[in-house]
Amino acid sequence: MIDDKKLVVTISPHIKDKETTSLIMWTVTATLLPSLIMGTYYFGLKATFIVFMAIVSAVLSEYLYQKFMNKKITVSDGSAFLTGLLLGLNLPPSVPFYIPVIGSSFAIIVAKQLFGGLGYNIFNPALIGRAFLLASFPRLMTTWTQPVAFLTQIDAKTTATPLSILKESGESKLIEIFGSKLDLYSQLLIGNRSGCIGETSIIALLLGATYLFYKKYITWHIPISYILTAGILAWIFGNPSQLFGGDPILHILSGGMIIGAFYMATDYVTSPALKKGQILFGIGCGFLTMLIRLKGGYPEGVMFAILIMNCFSPLIDRSFKTKVFGTDAKK
Amino acid sequence: MKQKTFKGGIHPLDRKELTSSKPIETMEPPKILIIPLIQHIGAPSKPIVSIGDEIKRGQKIGEPTGFVSASVHSSVSGKVIDITDSLNAMGRLVKSIFIENDFRDDTIHFEEIKDYLNLSPESLKERIKEAGIVGMGGATFPTIVKLSPPKEKPIDTVILNGSECEPYLTSDYRLMLEKPFEIIEGLKIIMKILNVNKGYIGIEDNKPEAIKSLKDVVKNERDISIISLPTKYPQGAEKMLIKVITNRQVPPKALPMDVGVLVQNVGTSYAIYEAVRFGKPLIERVTTISGEGINEQKNLLIRIGTTIEDVINFCKGINGRNIKIIIGGPMMGFAAQSLKTPIIKGTSGIIVLKDEDIIDSSNFLNCIRCGRCINACPMGLMPSMLSIYAERGFYEGAKEYNLFDCFECGSCTYVCPSKRPIVQLIRLAKSQVKP
Predict the structure, then answer these.
(1) From its phi and psi, is residue B225 left (phi > 0), alpha (psi between -120 and 50) or beta?
(2) A4 — contact with chain B (CB < 8 Å)?
(3) Shortest Cα distance from B409 to chain A (angstroms)?
(4) Last-in-domain residue among B278, B298, B317
(5) Exposed e or buried b per residue across B31-55, where buried means at least 16 C-beta atoms within 10 angstroms of its C-beta
(6) pLDDT per residue as tens digits for the range B53-72
(7) Among A204, A249, B81, B152, who pairs with A34 as Cys (CB 3.0-4.6 Å)?
(8) Is residue B155 within 8 angstroms of chain A, CB to CB?
(9) What global pTM score does this model have?
(10) Are residues B269 and B133 part of one domain?
(11) Is the same domain home to B44 and B158?
(12) Side by side, which strands form the sheet with B199-204?
């Protein structure tokens, strides 16, 4: 017979949804696989190795930090793995192996753990890792290689990214390189261009993002307002000689805008939780990205745009407080 | 036309199929019954019997003290063997009367009134008060108090709550199938007392047979409508129910009567009918015994004071090693601390969870601000912030996030992917600051 001592007593509710934070993290990780595969296809096995190093160092840094600081080991929640993967995918394919190691350790230890671990970091850890690398190794981090046929042994030639060509020489030069405007768009879509390992293949990224939408892990608010804002600004100001003469599609498809809008800006922890705030956040990201791309010193602005907007997330959430039921009731 | 609904809410698996097709079965009373003197919100009643007294079924054993209080009656005939503290569902010690059943069911005389709808509101209220009726959906607010609104707050609408949005529970559903006439008569009595000519019964649309059963009874009634509600938890919460049916919003800190509405559970309406028509006090109720952890799931008519242990034995016992017994529904009910906890007037269900459904609440992660709780909260709160503030001990901060508007429906905690005990943290914060 049972006795009272065996009764499990907790506070309601006594049933919970099957969704877990680790399941979300591992699912997001899985949806990035297509883009990793495309990165490997275009930039060789070395690219995979860089991503692998980024992941291993991220997970190991988290484990060692928590072990050393006598904290609960939480590497199995998948968040460190995801940070490593995102950082790896946002590195140029030609960097030496120690670059992802340094980047990931900085991302996990400084940007995440020192702020209090999962949920308490203000900035997207992967982006902080990348910003740190860009500041410390500016040449390595801005040396790009041409995509090569899969598994060829020839050393890849260095080249400029479409965005820097656009910045230096204008869109006509790009069209000249790629053949026609249509060729330019289609090559950008499949990812046959220089850039970070995981950012180039738009199709692969959208495939993964579609699944995240289907699972309702992300909503349209941040990515769409981000891309729309950037697109409109690119259209209005993108052409230095003429207002309303820019090419929004080119701007959206190149650089890190797609991976940024769907995978980095949508990071739960560092973006606003309320829908209205998310739209504002997306608009801010789009505005800052285009400001940097068109007026700043860098050809690409996604990383800094998202990091700057990250600081505003808590403020945005505070200003868009939810409306309590009954507060707008008519008397 | 698109069905009206409220913002937020969740769709948990309802698992009502375990008991929804099982007719109400009467459980014979056990040898020893424990009848708490407080089974309601308000002041405890005071015992009017002494140890050793022989008492009859239906005899009043506790007298209300104060306006917000309720009488308590014996559910069997027998002998008072003890009057002492005993654990209630919330785990508090409350003064209770222990009765040894003599299995004769000697009953006091119940005064029947056939022409009850012609009684004056005062005499109707008197009969309801004498019967010790309280809200049977779980909140256990004394019904007589709700039926006596202050003059400056006139009621123009009465709603019977048949939504039964908690998973597993089917006691209201079975009542609506088996006692539709009685429920409607109860509603008429309430409407007569308050001089109201708008009556609604709200039922979630996952119970089409209950809707049909009641619709058949009211087809010639002009003043009563049966409303099909979207199935979504917590549809049965008063504020949500009123919003969906009347489009009125009860403001924070206000009561339904502030917007001219009175809500009663369908089970309460049935008890009101029994009290007014047959003079029968509230000494038994229909309770759903369910969950995968119990060997036989049933809808039982149980005498008040029967312990959980007796009920479990009647349902062929428990399977599994870890045992979690929920008193009420799984979203807002209480985990039993003792098998000697009695069934009281507000006990709508006894749910025994199976091993793998018991959640280890000690193992939770930080809030990742995914916003799921914000989208689920029917009150438009930010449970994420409440839980973070409470976890860090910043209770005043939680108050700024409208801590006291939370009625602990548990939707946030249900959806939280980090498995944070949000309701628990909110309760902690509520206990630490003044409203």
Answers:
(1) beta
(2) yes
(3) 8
(4) B278
(5) ebbbbbbbbbbbebbebebeeebeb
(6) 999 999 999 999 988 999 99
(7) A204
(8) no
(9) 0.93
(10) yes
(11) no
(12) B224-229, B199-204, B157-161, B261-265
